[in-house]
Amino acid sequence: xxxxxISGRVQSGSGAGAIPRPYVxxxxxxxxxxxxxxxxxxxxxxxxRFTVDVSIDSTPSILYANSYVETGVQLMTVIGPEIRPSxxxxxxxxxxxxxxxxxxxxxxxxxxxxxGLRIAAGMNDxxxxxxxxxxxxxxxxxxxxxxxxxxxxxxxxxxxxxxxxRQVPGVPERVRELAxxxxxxxxxxxxxxxxxxxxxxxxxxxxxxxxxQEMEIYLPRLEELPYAWALAVKVxxxxxxxxxxxxxxxxxxxxxxxxxxxxxxxxxxPNSASCIMVLKPDGRPARGENGGPTSPVFGGGIFGVGFxxxxxxxxxxxxxxxxxxxxxxxxPEDGTVxxxxxxxxxxxxxxxxGAGTDRVQGVAADAEGNIWLASFGNDALVxxxxxxxxxxxxYPDTIGTAGPVGTFGxxxxxxxxxxVTYSGGLGxxxxxxxxxxxxxxxxxxxxxxxxxxxxxxxxxxxxxALDSRGNAWIASGGDDTVYMVSPDGSRVSAFTGGGISxxxxxxxxxxxxxxxxxxxxxxxxxDFTSASITKLAGLRPPEGHQTGDVLxxxxxxxxxxxxxxxxxxxxxxxxxxxxxxxxxxxxxxxxVTIDQAGNIWAVNNWKPNFATDFDPCSGNPGGDGIxxxxxxxxxxxxxx
Length: 640
Known about the structure:
Layout: E1 4-12, E2 19-20, E3 25-32, E4 35-43, E5 49-54, E6 63-70, E7 73-80, E8 86-89, H1 91-100, E9 105-106, E10 109-110, H2 114-127, H3 137-140, H4 150-165, H5 171-178, H6 190-199, H7 205-212, E11 232-235, E12 248-253, E13 259-263, E14 275-279, E15 297-298, E16 305-311, E17 317-321, E18 337-340, E19 360-365, E20 371-375, E21 380-384, E22 393-395, E23 407-412, E24 417-422, E25 437-443, E26 449-456, E27 461-466, E28 472-476, E29 481-485, E30 492-495, E31 503-508, E32 514-518, E33 532-536, E34 557-558, E35 592-594, E36 600-603, H8 610-613, E37 626-629
Parallel strand pairs: 1-8
Antiparallel strand pairs: 1-2, 1-5, 3-4, 3-6, 6-7, 9-10, 11-37, 12-13, 13-14, 14-15, 16-17, 17-18, 19-20, 20-21, 21-22, 23-24, 24-25, 25-26, 27-28, 28-29, 29-30, 31-32, 32-33, 33-34, 35-36, 36-37
């Protein structure tokens, strides 16, 4: 086995003003599912510098560096899946490690799946550079920098730890008390402080903010008290300056952790886009590595994709073509569906599959490879058995049969069954809205769709997701409510508050907690400038809470501007040079999706101002990019 060398420095602060932490021990660990494995250690010199000979060639997982500089003061740097010849260990690298690895922290060490750890390491590098211990380039430039508060929040948390590292009297004890472990005991050390903040961002916000103000190591700092210590990274590079994000609507992750993103419109117009985007697990555009896709992806009939996108067990990607803008020119002619290989090349013809579908919204693939399609335009449910588009199965059998309307969201349940929502319309104008329903269907052995449950519920019901016991959680935008329906439909519970406003969809994490994407109120008078994601307690609520309780504070987890307006990837303002400036990096969302590291990807589907955006032929609706909340959720079980 070859030996490789990692050199670096343990310090407080960064750059010329950094103070070394001398004579401390640095250990390099490799992480596995069982926990960390010591791969080499060394003692730092008087200037905090160290060199560790690491007994490893490569790793399918990740490496990290750990150092205890004082009692209760643990600093960490995530090295990642590749050896880095030089690293820095300081407060900022510890903040990045604590947030990115929050779902893999077992006490003060790391353990977990290789896939999840590698995804988390990529997100770590979006926050801080392990090489020099300064904010990562991603944080220093648009669409982050001062277009969001995350960079300043990152520095503020670094200042919080600096008071511990430099042993400011009273600060270390107080910090550990304000960021306690889940059992309520003070955090054992600074790394655990960061993990606890990441897992419970609304606890003791004001107290932590006050302590962080006592140090001015990392500047400029956060100037106003945040609602929550939730760190987020915004991404909006589609891979092509000519095809920017314009209303990302939903995300499906593939087996490699790549995010396939449904995209509604051409940015700055109401017209249907002819592509979807694919992002790597760290949010950068896919570039065709290892036989994968190159973003943006075209062909196969992609045109005005709506809410529907799914990855099947055979790794084929399915999207529903809905259509936006002028109905005479911008809707798919026959209401089509597109199928792609895992490398983004089309399987379906250039016109897509026309199989009795019309303006498809939700798309889902079940464990058997059946493709479920919510045909919104003709109120139908269509299934391609085992992905075979030549043998479509429809419910109802005859178009125009009376029943619930506006087929929208789909959540596969046990093999051959699925929950389906009927929204009754898109939600505006209200007078055109029909009653909303949730139904359950099964695909029979003789090739029919049988409806086994039908409940009228809520108002403008759209996204639906299932927890581990088969309960359906339903986003009901018209009454600002999330409903939970038992598997047999006999029990219905309703939950509100915590920033829930016009919820469009939900996601269930690995702890069965529920995350809500808030679209906000519809209508020309509404400018939704308070967008946030909401967390509801699921089947295993924390002590003192019940299922459905809000766990994300009164307002949810928002993302504000630190003073700069939102800019598109080409540097122009969100609404154009003549439009009003926008200071809302988190916009109207239609979905939240959780990756295998517990990061929550919230899509900016629609711009905040409905009056400016809405006109179907001249509006400017498509939101900009995706906001990734780092390490917030328990990773869901992988489906593929």
